[in-house]
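Query structure, 124 tokens:
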């Protein structure tokens, strides 16, 4: 029983493990130990075991129950799978291009013009 409890305290989402698989295993382990899934401590334990990119984003949403965490984490994971690069970041980045103009990285011939705050200049 001590090993089961120790495993519970150290349980984290594994590398390459889906949110769905992690959540199922989390629930199974909680059931074995008689852990209340409705408690704030269990909610925080579940969030704390997620991959860091999920954990930090989910904490910003301030979820109030286990199901919210599961839905949000699954959504974020899916969104990350469809991103253009492995880090889950967009390939469109703004890089400075001349005075007052920005080029969208990854797109040819796209320039976005901006005005300084309180400027009366026309940049068109």
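Result returned for the query:
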């Amino acid at each position: 029983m001590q090993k089961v409890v120790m495993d519970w305290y150290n349980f984290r989402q594994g590398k390459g493990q889906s949110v769905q698989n992690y959540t199922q295993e989390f629930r199974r382990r909680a059931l074995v130990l008689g852990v209340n899934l409705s408690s704030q401590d269990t909610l925080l334990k579940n969030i704390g075991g997620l991959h860091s990119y999920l954990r930090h984003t989910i904490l910003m949403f301030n979820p109030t129950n286990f199901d919210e965490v599961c839905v949000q984490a699954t959504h974020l994971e899916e969104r990350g799978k469809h991103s253009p690069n492995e880090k889950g970041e967009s390939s469109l980045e703004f890089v400075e291009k001349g005075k007052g103009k920005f080029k969208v990285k990854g797109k040819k011939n796209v320039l976005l013009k901006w005005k300084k705050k309180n400027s009366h200049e026309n940049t068109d």
